[in-house]
Amino acid sequence: MNDDHHQPDFGTGEKKLGIYATGFMVCCVLTLIAFASVMTHSFSKGMLFFIIFLTAIIQFFVQLICFLRLNIKTNQGKMNVMSIAFTGVILTVIVAGSLWIMWNCNYYMSH
């Protein structure tokens, strides 16, 4: 019998329950921070926007690392990180370009 059954390397590493549990707990805490900051009415609108935005960004990266298991330990993992980064660049260009076009259209239509 030949036992050359290799699992494909997707660059995600070994599945462990601990990393999922940690990610879940961190995401719950971040959600509660954002929820509590809105419900207590203790912050100005600008500070509230900053808190919500910051917790959302942190939660995004926690989910990438804990649930999608994005890492740079292997070559495939590095390619996965580069793919995510490239996707982010493309999305930023599309969204920023769309906002710029809409702002210019609004400006020229009203002047």
Descriptive key words:
2 domains, flat
Structure commentary:
The protein is mostly helical and 111 residues long. The chain folds into two domains: 13-69; 74-111. It has helices at residues 17-39, 45-66, 75-110.
Tell me the major beta sheet. none
Gap between N and C termini: 79 Å
Number of helices: 3
Could you estimate the helical fraction of the residues in percent? over 70%
| Category from helices, strands and their pairing | mainly alpha
Quaternary status of these chains?
single chain
Could you tell me the strand content as a percent range? under 5%
Low-confidence parts lasting 5 or more residues at pLDDT below 50?
A: none
Mean pLDDT: 91
Give the H and E element order: HHH
Q: How many separate structural domains? A: 2
Total E-strand runs: 0
Overall 3D geometry?
Answer: flat
Radius of gyration over all CA atoms, rounded: 21 Å
Task: Give the helices and strands, then pairings.
Blueprint (H helix, E strand, L loop, with lengths): L16 H23 L5 H22 L8 H36 L1
Describe what is shown at a glance:
73% of the residues lie in helices and 0% in strands. It is mainly alpha-helical and 111 residues long. The protein is flat, with a radius of gyration of 21 Å.
